[in-house]
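**Sequence, structure tokens**
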Amino acid sequence: MRRLRIVAPIQLAMVMPELASTPAQRWSALPDDARTAALSLLARMIANGVVEEEAADAPEH
């Protein structure tokens, strides 16, 4: 049986054009393949119940 090693999650920095200062501009600056992969992953996470809707009265962090 193979053993899997799970590493600690990290946030990777992404180099974006300096002109892409808003989230919408950064999203549109991504290649189509990256946007498709991100949306597919998000859809799978939502379908599996990993992403939950935030309650309106929840405290902000």
Notes: The CA atoms of residues 54 and 61 lie 12 Å apart.
